[in-house]
Predict the structure of Polyisoprenoid-binding protein YceI.
Amino acid sequence: MTTFTRTVDGRELPVPGTYAIDVMHSSVAFEVKHLGFSKVRGRFTDFEGTIAVAEEPQHSSVEVTIQADSVDTAQAQRDAHLRSTDFFGVEDHPTFTFSSTGVEFGDESLQVHGDLTIHGKTRPVVLDAEFDGACPDPMGDASRPRIGFSAATTIDRYEFGITFNQPLETGALLLSKLIRVELDVQAVRR
């Protein structure tokens, strides 16, 4: 335990406060199966959010907004296709949002429940999360804590109306309907 963490029911957690996500030291990444056997990975480069750590940890909250047109798979033609109406339709749906609805602690688990909005459709999701630690902010005011969390979930893109696909001769689909989403976040207390 440090001066920037506390122990609640035997679990190390950050001290209460509102923390702004540091985009330069955070990532929002995804992967999807392609052709039924390989994975395509990508990330979003423009996002913002806050983590509000409450005195009673189960009352904490998370809010994140992702700019859909910031998708980056390291392949410009594919990125342009992802921005099109076949996938994200960024002209009509410029952002994705996540708004937590609850935080649940198990013996060895931390889950953040929330509403994810993609392509104009909102669905409940559960992020399996982990508190990765805290330290003084070495890039600013050392009296303010910098915290780290990682989280992951798998979503069904069809539930968000993103149904573009193509059947293959093998019987597989061009793209899996399931997408793995992973977040690694650093945030600084305001």
